[in-house]
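Let's practice the habit of predicting before peeking. Look at the sequence and jot down your guess about where helices and strands might fall. Then scroll down.
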Amino acid sequence: MTRKERWQTLLDLLVERGELEVEPAAEALGVSAATIRRDLDQLAEQQLLVRTRGGAVLHGVSYELPLRYRTSRRAAEKGRISETVAALIVRGEVIGLTGGTTTTEVARALAARPDLATGSPALTVVTNALNIAGELVIRPQFKIVLTGGVARPQSYELTGPLAMEVLGQLSVDTAVVGVDAFDPADGAATRHEDEAAMNRLLCERARRVVIAADSSKLGVRAFARIVATDAVDILVTDTGLSPAVAEAFEAAGVEVIRA
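Done guessing? Here is the structure:
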């Protein structure tokens, strides 16, 4: 197991349990206690956790792993979802991409499409995600429009009044939205109200709204609602979605695509 994989596992365990002790963590990962202590010290230096005498606890009351530590979760499912979403996009469209691990994979899948390798532009991409803009801006066939705003380190997303002002003046054909939760009754949601506000405005400015989310995020709720279910046109998810939840989405008028 590499150091990055250990750190990912330690952070996942910490989120799941709320606290970690060195000896049980060492046993779970199959490494020495000294290695775990060193890992926890280094993660504490990055302010990803708080060290205690015998281990570590979560950093603060509210906790969210930074994007770079969430990319490996359900990677296979996200890969299939992103390819399916990318195939829905028509050459020449103006598309909106929110931040997140799945939408980042969608951006990469779009960049890999042979039919989008040339053009002026082949696509126009509107995003508030710094990492997505950074990956796509090197491709001259894509016109990249990045909103202003204040950056959130966890998600690389720009939010706030400046971002809202820019986005409110634009129109997009398809909005591809990442979420923390999507429930047939409660709608699409995220953990942070500032991100929810940006994503909501993007949906309002779009002709078509596509939610890209793995099945672990479906049929559950989160703090800040983005849009009601009937504002979503298409849900692209994986085959882990239960038939009952899928039927509830379809009854609400959402086209469900399992990748």
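How did you do? The longest strand covers residues 172-178.
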